[in-house]
Amino acid sequence: MKRRTLLGSAAALVAAMAAPAFGQDEKLKIGFIYVGPVGDGGWTYQHDLARQAVEKEFGDKVETTFIESVPEGADAERALTQLALAGNKMIFATSFGFMDATLNVAKKFPDIKFEHATGYKRAENVATYDARFYEGRAVIGTIAGRMTKSNKIGYIGSFPIPEVVQGINSAYIHAKKVNPNVEMKVVWVYSWFDPAKEADAAAALIAEGVDVFMQHTDSTAPLAKAQEAGALGFGQASDMTSFAPSPRISSIVDNWSPYYIKRVGQVLDGTWKSEATWAGIGDGEVVIGDITEAVPAEVKAEAETLRDKIAKGEYHPFTGPLKKQDGSDWLAEGATATDEELSGMNFYVEGITAPMPQ
Amino acid sequence: MMIDPIAVFVLLLGAATPILFAALGELVVERAGVLNLGVEGMMIGGALAGFAAAHATGSPALGFVAAAFAGVALSMIFAFLSLYLLSNQVATGLALTLFGLGLTAMFGKPYEGVKAPAMMAGPLGLNLMIWLGLAMVPVVWWALTRTRPGLILRAVGENHDAAHALGYPVRRVRLGAIAFGGAMAGMGGAYISIATVLQWTEGMTAGAGWIALAIVVFAQWNPWGVLAGAWLFGGVTVLQLRLQAAGVAVPVQLLSMAPYLATILVLVLISARQKFGRSAGGAAPGSLGRPFHALR
Amino acid sequence: MFRLEPRASAPLLWQVATPVLAVIATMIAGGILFAALGFDPVAAIRTIFWDPLFGPAASYSRPQLLVKAGPLILIACGLALGFRAGIWNIGAEGQYIIGAICGAAVALAAYPADAFWIFPAMILAGALGGWAWGMIPAVLRNWFGASEILVSLMLVYVAQKIAAWMAFGPMKNPEGFNFPGSRNLQQYEPASNPELIAGTGLHWGVIVAGIALLVTWFVMSRHVLGFHIRTAGAAPRAARFAGVRPERLVALCLGVSGALAGLAGLFEVAGPAGQITESFGSGYGFTAIIVAFLGRLHPLGILLAGLLMALTYIGGELAQLMLQLPAATVQVFQGMLLFFLLGFDVLTRYRIRRRHA
């Protein structure tokens, strides 16, 4: 049952792309596909800012295009192929759900460099990149632990996937460190972006007595709720400064620009290699937004010290002794979590009472 | 672990308001015998227009007025096609939803990342729109059951041929009902952008219009039932999130299916009562979804 | 003033002319819209409607039209039968999702076995799943008189929640690092539905869609069932005298359209989509309603309408790529297209007469 004929289709595709791809000026064409609209104010918006940063950095040496709001699955594969056929020599696929589509298309276009965000499958011409958001969560978790008066902090989760679970654990561990009485409440909204539901989730947390919360969803709706109720929150993905100085007391920003600029530069000078990049605060990929005057100076200083220690690599947010939620041992004194452990994380650390969704 | 029921109720009132508005509007439309599946499109239109106006004028009240007008404007496309060109209502409504979602995404770009003005506070810590939504329930009920225009509207919805024979202006009545539905859907959408989220983003109504359609059925085409339905649908979301916040393990997907299954159950019960029993109360309007064409 | 006078039968000229007029009107209105947004209207229209067919990369995008149109046509065929009979299944989206889930369930249960029967069994499960989901509104209508429009619509949401539950729970890929979504069936050969001839976009779903078109044509125009369906739609009371049993017709139309939608979902999950995710339903079931109407519930029309719809999707992506037009363009276009068609349709069904005072 050999039903696949990849080589045949690749030949047809190469024939199709031959005309537009060559014989033009030497500009490097770079394509992007986004899972949301560029105006989502969060995840996709930040990727598009990085695209603009690439244009600014390299001027007329590059030309960028994007396709937004691409559903994951078959549509993604087609959008990627169209970018490839349009002569793009480097393509950024900026959502986890584009993973298999990216690998399929990459197989047909061995000359094109693909960059896939947050995935775990690589190929000769497919690199992956991700950000250590949990490093940032440690910093804002510290601020949250200091700022809460009710000793209840909250977390609005999108989907129970490792990246989000890392964030919850990291935030809790560091809040607990500065405030042993702190309790963490978690609400899952099962969406990356559903403003009304996010607002309801924030309201539910506030009703539970939470007065400082973090979010791993993209809209500013939770901050709007916080403002109404006098609670505090943090910007997510983008800076969300329109809610500063309060309720937005700081933020955790995805800054893809340094990585994009570095990788585009490598394609331009021919040194690009497929690799897995997982960069954090130290590389400028995770940025702690301005900590506002609503936060006391000593708390701000404490948070910034932690941030700088993480950036220099002197401190890992998951350093033992740590136990899992069920009381079993996880990390021994002084041990740090490996990247493999983190990338499949599906448990809470000891002390979080919320149930892990199954 | 204790959950304060009053606090949950206050959350619920806010969550239910957009769908309450939209569903009350659609209720009147359906009682006039028209099925408009474009609620989502009109809501998102209202969400953008309301937000833009509130932002430009600094007044949320003017925002809601603008939202109502936007809803009416979109509903008039539907009315023109379905009433005057006798198009299929299901298809026309779907087209309206697509059109509304697309158009607002295109024209909403300048408002992304902009913040709305502060919402109008009202008594008991609930804003004025929540109160207005609650007040609309008895108003709609009274207008439908206790006034002559309401009686005519229901007659048109039950049997448009008979109503026409009696000399009632079927099309004009329906035009009015559709416009009312548009205005209410527009305001419901604006509640999401102006009061709940305080910003504009494309697609932000996220299916609320479809929930409103379900509520009308759940309500058995009765305004009080719409209130109950809006509370049920809003309540399930709020309660589910609230339970999570309290640390209770919740089967989220299964729970969020429940209101839809309840709606089907209610629909079956009222249909069965109508089919096998004596009472016709709570049944769907007789002419629902059927185009009206007067030969004379 | 004008008044409308129903025609005894729709003239062929208008039946063919109105969709064409609608497309032209959409292009004009769309062009005005683009100009208002500051884009070159001619380039935009050309990119959306011409380039996917004859542009520089057409040898790729032409087959993709089939991939995109296949499920639309398959679903629309079933819907058209019902719509003709006045039976309104607007829950095809739900039947599509359930069909995909049932089909995928067979594959995931069989994994990693390699046997010839897996793919046929999936097809059967997909069709059965969609059929069962479509039979719910049919049974509720026949037994209790519940509106199939509303029940089938409600069941769409239920199906969406089931898909989300599956993606996070029972069907989650055990090797997927806890990310939601099932195993990718494209990578499980006995269960996959690949491109059959390279570069054509042809997969089993497209072939089945073609068969469905032929069968629909045969049933509607050559078989007594088609006569029953048409009579039931046009004159329900007369149909009873002609020996049509409405209950059977309801069950048949909803069951068949459900099964076809389920098949479409199965072919999609085994082929182009590859896996069950929480957002598996991507609107094919609703777009197919548009396709059925745009194609005037006629197989040939549905074929053309399905291809046209696919064209707007693919052209819309090209327009983003080439002209940086926003993604929402496609929705606006589809909405307008349907508006214009429904509007012009009045010419098919009615004669316009000047009203005498």
TrEMBL record, chain A:
InterPro entries to which the protein is assigned, alphabetical: ABC-Purine-Binding, PnrA-like
Database matches in Pfam families: Bmp (PF02608)
GO CC list: plasma membrane
CDD domains according to UniProt: PBP1_BMP-like
Keywords assigned: Signal
Annotated PANTHER family: ABC TRANSPORTER SUBSTRATE-BINDING PROTEIN
Protein name: Nucleoside-binding protein
From TrEMBL, chain B:
Pfam families: BPD_transp_2
Coiled coil feature spans: none
Compartments where located: Cell membrane
CDD domains according to UniProt: TM_PBP1_transp_TpRbsC_like
GO cellular component terms listed in the entry, alphabetical order: plasma membrane
Transmembrane segments: 32-54, 61-84, 90-108, 120-144, 175-198, 210-233, 245-270
GO-annotated molecular function: transmembrane transporter activity
Keyword set includes Phosphoprotein: no
Record membrane topology: Multi-pass membrane protein
Swiss-Prot/TrEMBL keywords: Cell membrane, Membrane, Transmembrane, Transmembrane helix
Record has Transmembrane helix as a keyword: yes
This protein's name: Nucleoside ABC transporter membrane protein
Source organism of this protein record: Paracoccus lutimaris
Lineage of producing organism: Bacteria, Pseudomonadati, Pseudomonadota, Alphaproteobacteria, Rhodobacterales
From TrEMBL, chain C:
UniProt topology in membrane: Multi-pass membrane protein
Entry GO MF terms: transmembrane transporter activity
Domain of life assignment: Bacteria
Keyword Phosphoprotein (UniProt): no
Keywords in alphabetical order: Cell membrane, Membrane, Transmembrane, Transmembrane helix
Matches recorded under Pfam families: BPD_transp_2 (PF02653)
Keyword Cell membrane: yes
Location(s) in or outside the cell: Cell membrane
Annotated InterPro entries: ABC_transp_permease
Any GO CC annotation of this UniProt entry: plasma membrane
Transmembrane portions of the chain: 12-45, 65-83, 95-111, 117-140, 149-168, 202-220, 249-267, 279-295, 302-322, 328-347
Protein name: Nucleoside ABC transporter membrane protein
Organismal lineage: Bacteria, Pseudomonadati, Pseudomonadota, Alphaproteobacteria, Rhodobacterales
